[in-house]
Amino acid sequence: MSLQHPGPALPTPACDVIVVGAGRGTRFGGVKQYEDLAGQPIIRRTLQAFTRHPGIRRVVPVIHPDDSAIFAAAAKELDIAAPVIGGATRQESTRNGLEALADAPPALVLIHDAARPHVPAAVIDRVIAGLVHADGVVPVVAVSDTLKRVDDTGRVIETVPRTGLARAQTPQGFKYAAIINAHRTAAGRDLTDDGAVFEYAGGHVMTVAGDDAIIKVTTRDDFRKLTELMTETRIGQGFDAHRFTAGDAVTLCGVRVPHDQGLLGHSDADVALHAATDAILGAIGAGDIGLHFPPSNPEYKGAPSERFLRRAMELLHKRDGTLVNLDITIICERPKIGPHRDAMVAAVARIADVTPDRVSVKATTTEGMGFTGRAEGIAAQVVATVRVVPG
Ligand code: MG
Question: Do 92 and 133 lie in a common domain?
Answer without folding.
Answer: yes
